Amino acid sequence: MPSQARQRRSTKPAGRGTAEIPKNEAETQPGQANRDERLRAFYRDMVLVRRFEERAARAYTEALIGGYCHLNLGEEAAVVGLMSALRPTDYLFTNYREHGYAIMRGIDPSRVMAELYGRVDGVSKGWGGSMHMFDVTHRLLGGYGIVGGQLPIATGAALAIDYRGGDEIVMCTLGDGTTAIGAFHESLNLAGLWNLPIVYVIINNGLGMGTAVAHSSAEPELYKRGAAYRMESARVDGFDPVTVYEAAEKAISVARGGRPYLLEVVTERLKGHSVVDPAKYRSAEEVERLKGEDPVQHFGAKLLADGVIDEAAIAKVEAEAAAVVADAAAYAEKSPHPEISTLFDYTYATPVPNDSRRLPGQPLFEPEPFPEGSASVTGASA
Amino acid sequence: MTIMTYRQALHETLRAEMLRDDSVFLIGEEIGVFEGSYKITAGLLKEFGEKRVRDTPIAEEGFAGVAIGAAMLGLRPVVEMMTINFSMLALDQIVNHAAKIYGMFGGQASVPLVIRTPGGGGQQLGATHSQNIELFYSFVPGMKVVAPSTPADAKALLLAAIRDNDPVLFLENLALYNTKGEVPDEEVQAEIGRAAITRPGRDLTLIGYSRMAHVAAEVAADLAESEGLDIEVIDLRSLRPLDRGTIIESVKRTHAAVVLEDDWLTYGIGAEVAASISDGAFDYLDAPVRRVAMAEVPLPYSKPLETAALPSRDDVIAAIRQTLRAVGRRTTPAGATQP
């Protein structure tokens, strides 16, 4: 079975790494200062996603978070690079591994954490949980828990943009395993036929739960699927936020021009499928290899070596992330659970008569008193 | 009032809604160039263009989902599923997504979507093309399901469905497309979630929806004329929400009920209606609630077998007689002389 690392290296034969920053020119070119600031922002964001997910994992093991909990650990460069390339008016549809995306869309991490805790101040008011983050203001139109469910819907959002004539685009992320389902084909075919402004992004972390890409796709170079829909496509190294950002910018410009695009971002999932998955299907060598595949560490070391940040700045980034995450957890814990009286508030957007509002123990109809003069149960047995 | 067919009522209403609101658009297989498998959308592509009448490839899951996404952004798509049998290919999008999005995301986005689709057997189309699986959608909170039986209701419920902000499965029936009736010229919207007493009566409550509401009305009229029976007919019109109140109040007056359905008996819509009567009118019943439903087989192609499997007028009449006999009321079989 080809390892994910080999797949990635094959896409970038020169080895991984941030696009070279000519250090000596940094001080002399005004654009360089901006670029360095962007690199520092990428790093700050990656650290925040990492620390947030670690805190979520802890809260999950403390039973403060219920249900499933899928983390972006190892995918931080992909998350940050992709989200940085979107305009605030663009739409994002994603799957159930989406905490990092929610934060990077600009949603307050405290509200994301509150959703994980199932509280009323969560982004989805406690109705969605880990897999179903949603925020209209920041145009995150869902976290979707059903694999591939978001694809046709995201395609429809792109159709609505086209229908109305706006210049927004839709980004729709999906996992490698999702490329095997029918909705992937149907959606990409429709987007290709109708020239819709959408970028499909395959986050290829090499594993759909425990199934390797080579065992789920007859064409393991997933971006090549674009050819079937005459859709421009590319595969990039998801270990580096700059590479991802640049690839996303290109894909988005194609979409804004009215053609869909398929981008494959090759990443690693550093831990199991979800918090409770010990990932026993991974070999000892694989586990050993992954220790050297940490994009956050790698990017920090790179920036340090290139003189873009120093140790003090790294410590500051860490301290800030720790504070944000601690605040988020405190906020989530303090936020109330939704009131039971709100249970029937979100069945329908347009109220209709005879909508059932019955709790499990309640009868459909209140029992009527026996008519006057008829025998009661006790009367009959007496 | 204008006399028109059920098909014309649907066509006219779609057209009027598209003229009224440019966020309304049609999407589905063969609705444009081919003008619809059952010609409901005939002429609309020519009038409104490809943007408003969007032909799709054969991709039910794909275009149902596309309609959901477009609806989330404020458009009002009306999907045509060629038959309800094919809607099962879109079950994930309809059940796991359309019906969930409003609640699952805490009321932040609604899905103003209509899925029009005909059910119905009796056309010798064999087992996969003759089903009545509206129950699948009626089971799911978040969905609304309506089933008009007359041209007037086709208009009134389609208006309501298109203007509603939730996903509505709009059940049509192959056998009803050519039926005729009076349709008001003005905009009269029906209320989703309300049944209608289409014929008042005191002897027995006969309940149906879609094609079987039509059969119920015919049988009640015939029995009134031939035997003087006074049967109350309820057309459910809305399968979710289900208007239990109207059913219960009727049974409290008549003390007997027969429920008609084109779907299978076990776990069918009629089972829910019968259980509701048991919940709300147990003490008022003078006979067990009877159900008349399709035989529990994959519907055969053979005409005699198909006919035997589908509920007929005679089946309905027999069930009514047996129920009234259980009540203690004498009824006269057609053609028999009174002893």
What's the layout of helices and strands?
The complex is a heterodimer of chains A (about 375) and B (about 350).
Chain A: H1 4-11, H2 23-26, H3 30-61, H4 76-84, E1 91-94, H5 99-104, H6 109-116, E2 140-143, H7 150-164, E3 170-175, H8 182-194, E4 198-204, E5 207-208, E6 211-212, H9 213-216, E7 232-237, H10 241-256, E8 261-266, H11 284-290, H12 295-305, H13 311-334, H14 377-381
Parallel strand pairs in A: 1-2, 1-3, 3-4, 4-8, 7-8
Antiparallel strand pairs in A: 5-6
Helix pairs in contact in A: 3-4, 3-12, 3-13, 4-10, 6-13, 7-8
Chain B: E1 2-5, H1 6-20, E2 24-28, H2 44-48, E3 53-55, H3 60-72, E4 76-80, H4 91-98, H5 101-104, E5 114-119, H6 134-138, E6 144-146, H7 151-163, E7 168-173, E8 180-183, E9 196-199, E10 204-208, H8 211-227, E11 231-235, E12 238-240, H9 244-254, E13 257-264, H10 269-281, E14 290-294, H11 303-309, H12 313-327
Parallel strand pairs in B: 2-3, 2-4, 4-5, 5-7, 6-7, 10-11, 10-13, 13-14
Antiparallel strand pairs in B: 1-8, 6-12, 9-11
Helix pairs in contact in B: 1-7, 3-4, 9-10
